Amino acid sequence: MTLLSAQTSVVLPDPVAIVDAFHEHFNEHMTMTREGQAVHFEADYGNGTLSAEEGRFAARINCVSENVLLSVKAMVAEHIVEFTGDTSLDFRWEGHGSDLRELPNLFVGRVVRSYNLTPRMRRVVFAVDNGIERLAAGGLHVRLLILPDQTRTPVWPHLSKTGAIVWAKGEDEQARRVYTIRAINKERAEVDIDFVMHEGDNMPGAHFGATAAVGDIVGIVGPGGERPEADHYVFAGDETALPVMLRMVAEMPAGKTVTVYAEVDNEGEQQDVRSNADLSWNWLYRRGQPAGTAGLLQQALRQHSWEKQDGLHVFVGCEKDEARAIKKVLADEAGLAKKAFVAAGYWVRGANDDH
């Protein structure tokens, strides 16, 4: 596989401290190897090295696609500023995409219809103005840019010279939420995105999903996030992870084995499940307990048989604290290697963090 590459460096008072900060911040999310004043990282989407060299912080990254490279460059640039606290830093990227200022992975979607799949899951179908083939050729997830006012002309984000994404501010600021593309119809140039209907104030994603009218527009940035190649899969998640788990099993080829633990409130939240794989799908019901508190996913994974670990990939998506607890179960109790599982905090209890 050919990887796309980019590199940058910036003079800093203490570049080693920034390498340390990257290592500490991202170590739980990917495989990182420390060698002196450098950290090498490996992920499904690529690899790279972050190092301190003669008074400079340097980053060299290699990614599987232009979209992923753009995202990783932006992540590195934004965290350099965050870790240093210096918003005036001036640096440039060399390599692939160094001259880009417009986001190549920004699409405009227009609502064409919406309807409830279950009492707490609503589907919104978007027609994509241009680029459905590129959108379909990417990963599972996109970032939706939800406009504050449908009557205003959108001010879409662009790339700064440092590779960071410059988002609209003030009256033009857009809420940004990550969602799974549940399905794509290339002939109709449409994408389906499912919204969990949360209760609470200041939930722009759930509010948009509940009120989206024909003709409303959103920005769509992405896609990213692939299903890792494996022979055996275990998926576990609550409603927020249900769209991605349903999509992954629907696209799973024959010959794969997959076990799914899907936590929902009650039987009314079940959806049809289709797969060519050898599938064991298990619905877990909270029955009125608040999401993120029932402990059903942790219990199910504790009781799961982990005898088959060769060729295994585990994905978990749920509330952030619950995901952290499950990481410990998978690593300390099940004995899984770090690279064999991903446990993602899709939302945070008590925060305005809908999905």
Please give the structural blueprint:
Blueprint (H helix, E strand, L loop, with lengths): L3 E8 L3 H12 L4 E5 L2 E6 L2 E8 L2 E8 L2 H19 L9 E2 L10 E13 L2 E8 L3 H5 L4 E6 L11 E2 L5 E2 L8 E11 L4 E7 L7 H8 L5 E8 L7 E6 L4 H9 L6 E8 L13 E8 L10 H8 L8 E8 H14 L7 E7 L8
Parallel strand pairs: 15-16, 15-18, 16-17, 18-19
Antiparallel strand pairs: 1-5, 1-6, 2-3, 3-4, 4-5, 7-8, 7-14, 8-13, 9-12, 9-14, 10-11, 12-13
Helix pairs in contact: 6-7
Characteristic key phrases:
355 residues; TATA-Binding Protein; 37% strand; Rossmann fold; Elongation Factor Tu (Ef-tu), domain 3
Structure description:
With 355 residues, the protein is α+β, with helices and mostly antiparallel strands. It folds into 3 domains: 4-95, Alpha-D-phosphohexomutase, C-terminal domain (TATA-Binding Protein); 106-224, Beta Barrel (Elongation Factor Tu (Ef-tu), domain 3); 232-347, 3-Layer(aba) Sandwich (Rossmann fold), CATH 3.40.50. It is built from 7 helices and 19 strands. A 6-stranded antiparallel β-sheet has the order 2-3-4-5-1-6, with helices on one face. Strands 7-8-13-12-9-14 form a 6-stranded antiparallel β-barrel. A 5-stranded parallel β-sheet has the order 17-16-15-18-19, sandwiched between helices. It is globular, with a radius of gyration of 21 Å. The mean pLDDT is 93.
